[in-house]
Design brief:
This protein is an alpha/beta fold and 309 residues long. It contains 14 helices and 8 strands. Strands 1, 2, 3, 4, 5, 6, 7 and 8 form an 8-stranded mixed sheet that branches. 42% of the residues are buried. Bound molecules: S-adenosylmethionine (SAM).
Amino acid sequence: MEFENYKQLWDSKAGSQADALIAVDGSSDESIVQSNGQFTAAQVIAALDIQPHDRVLELGCGVARIGRELAAVCEHWTGVDISGKMIARATERTAHQNNVSLHQLNRTSLEMLADNSIDKAYSIAVMCHMDKEDLYLYLEELKRVLKPGGMIFIETWNLAHPVGWKRWQYEVNHWSGSDQSVRKDVSRNQFCTPDEFELYQRKAGFELIQTFSNSPWVQCIATNQMDAANIAREQQRIEQQKDTIAYSILFGEMFEQTIAVIYGVIHPREAIEFINKHQDTAEAELYRPFVEGIWNGNPQQWGEIERTA
Ligand SMILES: C[S@@+](CC[C@H](N)C(=O)[O-])C[C@H]1O[C@@H](n2cnc3c(N)ncnc32)[C@H](O)[C@@H]1O
């Protein structure tokens, strides 16, 4: 087995700023990472109703792709990550911001944060890369550090969605015939049904406010001790902003094309033709550089990239 733990694997992906950007975003272009960061930050801001007085935490912050954008609109942003190298990259990218704290984690504990010290917390593209025990232990920690009435926004792969299931099948095929005398990659993709993901949150002491699961991702917004009237108000507010928070059908379709490219099922040209059909959408703007990056990165497999737009 190449990597024995989360830290080793993610550190190996973040040796340079360019490699770290690719690991979290698929692109080494800072302007593309910023624009994608703004897209995800808009989801988080809408999901959690981020306010200028909020103290916000991101679990698994990577290079602060999202945090750099959020720090600009909240009181204080804290990023934590298992990879010291990711934290170093995030430190470089947020050097101009004075309301940012970054911490490397050593275990599934947020020991550097006091009880009831955070208003809102989120975790994007992280819980799908860890064992379920660690996911649950982090939820217990999020519950501890969150103020009463605070909210979390978290997501993972959705096993119950057709494209989520397809993604899982790629994973299954990848491991078929693998050497059973060694552990599988510790950071391999892990999947939940919406029910399972919600159950972990309830058992950790959260109350679910809203779940979006009509995409390859399960996205949950939950609270630590909010009263029923406020939960109802939040549900109404979230309903009005659901187009910003939930991944769209088109987002899921472009994702399906992209994983088919990654697993060699279709040529990137085919995915780009699909993207071109939906030109001028936010989804096309996000996926085009991603697919072009895959094509550019492997001319032996796909040939030199063609001008397709
Ligand atoms: C795909 S990146 C996502 C980064 C960031 N959330 C974003 O969306 O740009 C996954 C991040 O989770 C971190 N990570 C992976 N396993 C972790 C764990 N067990 N505890 C904390 N962070 C972890 C990795 O180091 C990496 O920075």
